[in-house]
Amino acid sequence: MASTSALVEATGLVKEFRRPRKAPGLAGALKHLVTRRFDVHRAVAGIDLRIDEGESVAYVGPNGAGKSTTVKLLTGILVPTAGEVRVAGVVPHRDRVANARNVGVVFGQRTQLWWDLPVHETFELLRDMYRIPAADYRRSMDRLCEVLEIGPLLPVLARKLSLGQRMRADLAAALLHEPRIVYLDEPTIGLDVSVKDRVRAFLRQLVDDGTTVLLTTHDVGDIEEVCRRIVVVDEGRIRHDGPVGVLRDTLASNSTVRFQLAAPAPLHLIRERLPDAEVTTGASERDLVVRFDRTLRPAGAVAATVMGLVEVRDLRIDDEGVADLIRRLHDRDSPAALNGAG
Amino acid sequence: MGPYRAMARIAWRNALAYRVPFLMSLSMMVFNLVAMFALWQALLGDGNSLAGFTWPQMKAYLLVSFFTNCLVSTFTDFAMASRIRSGAVAVDLVKPVDYQKSRLAEALGFALLEAAAAATVCAVVLVAFGGVPLPSPGRLALFVASLAAVVPLKFLIAYMCGLLCFWTQNYLGISLARGAVSGILSGATVPLAFFPAWLRQVAEVLPFQAVTNTPAMLFLGRNPGLPGALAVAVQLLWIVALWWLARRLWHVAVRRLTVHGG
Amino acid sequence: MHTLRVYRRSLGAHLRATLEYQADFWILVVAAVLTQGAGLLLIATIFARVPRIHGWGVWEVVLIFGMMVLAQGTSELLAEGTWGLAGLINRGELDRMLLRPYPCLLQVCSSRVGMNAFGNLTVGGGLLVSALAHLDVAWTPGRVALAAVLLPSALLIKVSLTVVANSTSFWLRGAINTFAGGLDQLGELTKYPLSIYSVGLQAVLATALPFAFIGFFPVSVFLQHGRLAWVGLLTPLVAAWCVFLAVTVFSRGLRRYESAGN
């Protein structure tokens, strides 16, 4: 063990996938048999990550950034191409059984309940597989039934549950053996607002009780309500790592004013007058977007400057939050997306 | 192009989607053919004859039986059952076409593919195992007509079994049971000539024998002249009767769906 | 012990869940009885006309047949889940099994119960008992010991071959493994005395795909029937080899899954 308090320790983690390069059709398939050429895709391209006991980490990034692959590496589902992982001192893919006792996993898109069985049978099977002592099991079940309100779901077949019910049962199934760390992969996807709130409240409680949580999500609400630390990943690398609070404060100093103009925007003129702002057009040439640091100049000054140059029909002022950060991250054309956020 | 021809064409296009169950059942029938060939060759190969069958005649019987087994073997009830169970059948109900005719159109479309696959296998077997006695042109024409009648006949049996999914979720069981019952009573498992008299009499008054026994007997020339033509007429009668019966069943099933909400 | 207990509990849970649907249960029992009944009808009609096939009498063939049915039922009871392996891989659902502290292969095997199992176990067991009763076997202690070794070995071979066939799903992408289905159907050939097949096919069924060790060879040695009866003594070795093969192929596949993602 590298450190006494690091629960997850990943260094230089790399995962490459080889995809066969095949021409379409039968001829392509035959040619592939002879030549066997592959494209190498680096889903995770060197990640160093350390999570201490009791932390709650949001792991975010656009689709295809390598989030799920990282989670699969940390849980031992995938074997890394290079690099090292230790979770609670165990190498997950090498000692799967020992690792399984330390971790709980929830996939929002897939259930881990036995599909054809009543929910209580799933819990009993998990109890047997994890060898949970009877007293611990009863205590754990009582607590989960109370906070997740799954009591009425116990006799129901898993495939007959609604999405929200299924997610609550899934959470309980992942936590039954009281794991030290819980991985949650998009746990609120597709849920309606009220169920989302319940799930988040439950996760917050989990964090407050000292369970370590790693959460991948596209939902800003999940991050802001559950996590204290945010790790942003893109193209297989970590782009940002820091407290959620600091990120919000930094971003909060950024403001955006959106103008609707009577005529196409004279971009070069506006940029000349507002050299430290980011000036772009929106959906049409008549939509102007000015992004600036509120500590350098007030929004009113920005509006006045633009109005002095061109006739303005309408304007709207937005303060940025974590939502905008994620949105900008997902827009890969803006490499400066995270300026000032580190 | 009319709606039913369009559906037959769609069945062709869907063939790719149903290739897995199709190949499964084809491989099952091919292996069964291998076993039956070996078994009957062991019994008849040295010039014996049993129940009036010599080895070349039995070869012909087995090939005709294989061919009729392949027709309408997968598509109809398999697709119907999954649509009924998933509730997607509701979409079929609001279409401005007749449900039964639509399914028949699909079955006919797919049967072309099944016939092509079965004919290929038969050709390979003929090359490997040598010839079978060919019927005269006149009898051959009657045989082809009765083979054509097998398609709607098998369709109607499969269709009615598919409709049972309005009552039970367990299509696998129904499909297995249907396979076993129609295998026995059609003569596909053993020629009816081998049956004890009572079982033979039971089989002869049921529609299943028209599926395999009738075309096989025509091919072998067991019922020359008028009886042969009559056998084909009986096939057609069964088609009409089952068509009407299937309609009744469909109405009962739909009432159940619309009244009880599936 | 713990491993076995969890396995039993998983099967038990699935059993309870499926028995909730009584109608489905009976449909499948009836379907299994009818399906095997068709096979028996073939045997019965043949032996009504000939006393022996390649030296095999009716109850000897029924014994082979019964072993095959019993083995099929055993595989449906203990390893039905492997038929879902292709789907588990295809949908990425194997992930969750890798996250639990229990052998993945056993989780896959016990993730379903084949409801045909009851019909087939009953029919197979019944055939075994009645064949042995008619065959007038001298139950010396040696015979009893032989049977006690042969029976579990044969059943184990069937279960292992099912696992091997389905483990190819790690290499063949697709939601259903047609190859495994075909292989299983090929195994059905060994319901009849092996000697009726061509030498090449016999060799395949005795070595590369040793389905003949489920029914034919164990029965041969037990009844001391035929020149090759001694080969049946290899049944426990073949069983060990098949188990080894199943575990090896499955874990090779799993390693591929772990490094390839899905």
TrEMBL record, chain A:
Keywords: Antibiotic resistance, ATP-binding, Nucleotide-binding, Transport. GO terms for molecular function: ATP binding; ATP hydrolysis activity. SUPFAM superfamilies: P-loop containing nucleoside triphosphate hydrolases. Gene3D superfamilies: P-loop containing nucleotide triphosphate hydrolases. One of its GO terms (cellular component) is plasma membrane. GO terms for biological process: response to antibiotic. It is found in: Cell membrane. This is ATP-binding cassette domain-containing protein. It comes from the Bacteria. SMART domains: AAA. It is a peripheral membrane protein. It comes from Micromonospora carbonacea. PANTHER family: ABC TRANSPORTER ATP-BINDING PROTEIN (PTHR42711), ABC-TRANSPORT PROTEIN, ATP-BINDING COMPONENT (PTHR42711:SF1). The keyword ATP-binding applies. Residues 28-260 form the ABC transporter domain. InterPro entries: AAA+_ATPase, ABC_transporter-like_ATP-bd, ABC_transporter-like_CS, ABC_transporter_ATP-binding, P-loop_NTPase.
Automatic annotation (TrEMBL), chain B:
Keywords: Membrane, Transmembrane, Transmembrane helix. The keyword Membrane applies. The chain crosses the membrane at residues 20-40, 60-80, 110-134, 140-167, 179-199, 225-246. It comes from the Bacteria. InterPro entries: ABC-2_transporter-like. This is ABC-2 family transporter protein. It comes from Micromonospora carbonacea. The lineage of its organism: Bacteria, Bacillati, Actinomycetota, Actinomycetes, Micromonosporales.
Automatic annotation (TrEMBL), chain C:
Keywords: Membrane, Transmembrane, Transmembrane helix. It holds the Pfam family ABC2_membrane_6. InterPro entries: ABC-2_transporter-like (IPR010390). The chain crosses the membrane at residues 25-47, 53-71, 117-139, 145-165, 199-223, 229-250. This is ABC-2 family transporter protein. The lineage of its organism: Bacteria, Bacillati, Actinomycetota, Actinomycetes, Micromonosporales.
